[in-house]
Amino acid sequence: MKRIDLMKEHQRLLKQQICENLDLLIGSVVRSPAMMYHGLTTKVAGKTVTRYVRKGLVTKVKIMTERHQKVRALIQHLSKINWELLKLESEK
Q: Fewest CB atoms within 10 Å of the CB: 26, 61, 74, 81?
């Protein structure tokens, strides 16, 4: 298999992984010793906002915020692959 074909396959797999992980939340789950609850902290219009997270949802919210980090890393990797593909295609 040619290098360009391998890169395109890698690109396809990355796109698939991104699509499979779009059930996400941006932010981080926080709980300070003074608080008796968990919160999801995120930026909204340049301001830090904390939303209350019910006790039963904490695990799911943590998983969803981890997915956000994973998707960010996958997009970075996809960008590198896309750049390499552009360089290879321009050499033809």
A: 26
